[in-house]
């Protein structure tokens, strides 16, 4: 095998590795291997090829990687797991216990402890004692998730 074959093999292996390791570090090293391959077309001295590969990798890490990180990995990310729960609706599966202030609710097949947000200020009709009275809500009612604290969903009425 000729020298450029080895550089091409290194380039391809690093590029494949970049698919599995985030951060564009292996991609920068792949660009260095590409530069080493280009140098092998002009000289047979492995020292110059390694210098070209090193220079290509360093320049790529200094200039190309920050640009790519700004372009591809900036902006709003998609919330997943527990971070995706606020704003969703939960259906009550167990009425709220007046002593503990907690009940149970279900989202996407998962059963959670729920409790009302103690700081929530809602509107109430004339003559009503409170809009946050737990006895006003029964099994099957839907509530909005405001926050998640450990394994408890903090909820408020949908209206």
Describe the structure.
- This protein has 159 residues and is of the alpha+beta class.
- It folds into two domains: 3-72, no CATH class; 81-120 and 130-157, Beta Barrel (OB fold (Dihydrolipoamide Acetyltransferase, E2P)).
- It is 40% helix and 21% strand.
- The protein contains three helices and five strands; from the N terminus they run αααβββββ.
- The protein has helices at residues 3-20, 25-42, 46-72; strands at 89-94, 102-107, 110-116, 142-149, 152-157.
- The protein has a five-stranded mixed β-barrel with strand order 1-2-3-5-4.
- α1 (3-20) packs antiparallel against α2 and α2 runs antiparallel to α3.
- The protein is rod-shaped.
- 21% of the residues are buried.
């Amino acid at each position: 095998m000729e020298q450029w074959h080895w550089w091409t093999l290194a380039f391809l292996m690093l590029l494949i590795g970049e698919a599995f390791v985030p951060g564009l570090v292996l991609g920068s090293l792949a660009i260095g291997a590409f530069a080493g391959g280009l140098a092998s077309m002009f000289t047979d001295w492995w020292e110059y090829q390694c210098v070209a590969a090193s220079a290509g990798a360093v320049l790529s890490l200094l200039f190309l990687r920050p640009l790519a990180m700004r372009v591809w990995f900036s902006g709003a990310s998609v919330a997943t797991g527990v971070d995706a729960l606020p704003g969703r609706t939960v259906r009550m599966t167990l009425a709220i216990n007046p002593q503990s202030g907690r009940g149970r609710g279900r989202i996407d097949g998962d059963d959670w402890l729920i409790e009302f947000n103690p700081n929530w200020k809602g509107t109430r009709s004339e003559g009503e004692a409170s809009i946050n009275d737990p006895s006003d809500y029964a099994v099957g009612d839907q509530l909005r998730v405001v926050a998640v604290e450990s394994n408890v969903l903090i909820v408020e009425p949908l209206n």
